[in-house]
Amino acid sequence: MTRFGDFKPLCRDVPSYPWCNLFYRELQHRAPAALLGASFDTKSAPVGINPKCGIPRTGSENSIGNVANIIACAFSIVVTLWLIYRCNHRKAAVGRVELRAFLVVYLFTLPLQLVTTGSFLQQGSTTLVVFTAIHAGAVAALFWTLLGNAIVATQVVEDGTPSSLVPFYFLTVVFMAGTTYVSLDIAFTISSTLEPGNPKDSLHSITLFVLTSIWPGAAALVYFILMGWIVAAVLREMRPLIYYGLAGLLFILAQLAFFLLSRPICNGTNAKIDGSFIATVLDTATVIVLYLAWRSITEDYWVDEAYFPR
């Protein structure tokens, strides 16, 4: 029976699910007999634990890795750099520093995603585990920065001031460091404090599941509710509301593409590509629309009153 916090169905049915890299390392050292099928040979094993379909590691069986998602990540990096550049030029915009932080963290997740899902590194290797742990931390931090932008938009505290930035950056570091530690604890079994158990429970972690699945969804939901309220009830504008609605739709479609389309695409292409590239493109489209929504409710520059000497 599947329990809350079980990763086994995800690691089996969803190709390129990056957090499976952590459990692979744990199983390799605590219960190697549990690694079967495509996961048996570490030199060619794809992302996942005994996956029904997975892209073999680069170089094995003429595989070039998850090339479609590699291209999507590279494209997204360029687009995000452009958004950061444009954000920096809007000097008077409310929440500029906080939105820039969100974009920078999103940019940081892209090369990590490229490494953790690209089938470059050998499964079970320390390098892959460390990159995956940092990736998990970056994702948890990303969604705090998203929610933090909505809190700043309410003007509870003035944006760009220490009262806004200190807790904003502090919680970003807390989410990043905490999730990274939890991830490393799972892979290397540093302690049994967080997830006590035995090798049969190796694909079970409530803490990691909450930080990488429940928290992002909850943070995104609260963000869109807050921004919808600000735009509709406070600013009374329709155009930004359309942007935020579109961003929410794109975000949902990205999750559906990753979790529902990845395996059919993987099977249909004989394990050449999966749906992760569609999810990456849709995620980046979401970020673009969020930037457009923010731009539509903020000023580009300060308008100085004309001075007429007497």
TrEMBL record:
A GO term, aspect molecular function: unfolded protein binding
Highest taxon of the lineage: Eukaryota
Keywords: Membrane, Transmembrane, Transmembrane helix
InterPro entries: Chs7
Organism, as annotated: Lactarius akahatsu
Chain ranges passing through the membrane: 67-85, 97-116, 128-147, 167-188, 208-235, 241-261, 273-294
Keyword Transmembrane (UniProt): yes
One GO BP annotation of this record: protein folding
PANTHER family given in the database record: CHITIN SYNTHASE EXPORT CHAPERONE
Name of protein: Chitin synthase III catalytic subunit
GO cellular component, one term: endoplasmic reticulum membrane
